[in-house]
Amino acid sequence: MKLVAAQLRGLAGDIDGNIQRHIAVIERAASHGAAVVVFPELSLTGYEPRMAQRLAMSCDDPRLEVFQALSDRHQMLIAVGAPNRGQEGIEIGMFVFRCRESPVVYAKQMLHADEQPYFHPGDRPMVFPLHGAVIAAAICYESLQAVHADAAVARGATVYLASVAKAARGVDTGYRHYPAIAQHHGLTVMMANGVGPADDFVMAGRSAVWRTDGTQVCSADAEGEALVVYDLATQVAEVLPMGDAVGAAHDR
Q1: How many angstroms separate the CA atoms of 47 and 203, rounded?
Q2: What is the pLDDT of residues 16-31, one digit of tens each?
Q3: Under 8 Å CB-to-CB from 170, ≥6 apart: which residues?
Q4: Separation CA 220–CA 241 (nearest Å)
Q5: SS3 state of residue 49
Q6: Is 154 exposed, middle or buried (0-12, 13-18, 19+ CB in 10 A)?
Q7: Which residues contact 210 (CB under 8 A, 6 or more apart)?
Q8: Of the candidates 194, 187, 184, the residue with the CA atom closest to the CA atom of residue 223
Q9: Full-model pTM
Q10: Is the pLDDT of residue 172 over 70?
Q11: CA 83 to CA 158: how far, in whole Å?
Q12: Is residue 247 very low, low, confident or very high in pLDDT (cuts 50, 70, 90)?
């Protein structure tokens, strides 16, 4: 089973444009045999908390139907990010699409202080069994809290997917934390970060994967759009620069 972290440059507030870019990435990932593709935090809107109220979505938004169709076609789990209209307020959502199943939204449970004025925390952890693995969802700040990984492992997780929007300092912290939890729990850990401007900082890329012994297999660079591809069976990884594929999709 191949896992893919999509390192993407978000277009602030441009949901339609970002959807087209996501489609190009998913098709590229499918051509390399991906079973799972995870995008950065709030990837469909860009990480823009001040815009969240206006840009919030829900699972039944017709603009998201393309992701279910792609999931069905490629038999792939696809995890994209957007503000979610939860029952208690706007949440930082990871919208998860699985082949022939109804979409679900995982809402970030542990918010950074800067996010609390704009978002309501989720209250339900989620794991997704797939091809013998159990995939746990994690979003940025909470993925750096040991108790979050502890809870995921208690639910049987074997793969920890961290969808993040991190500046350089946050990436450095992740590069210390993720191998530690990988080794401690015997988890495969994959981080998908964005690149380019976001809110009041610049996302610093370096999307990466760590084996269950804490060894970093490979990582993308800090600026370019790329796919980090990891084969769980062979434990081999590669980084695929996106080149012109994403830009071409946006130009159409």
Answers
A1: 9
A2: 999 999 999 999 999 9
A3: 140, 144, 164, 204
A4: 8
A5: helix
A6: exposed
A7: 178, 179, 182, 188, 189, 190, 216, 217
A8: 194
A9: 0.95
A10: yes
A11: 27
A12: very low
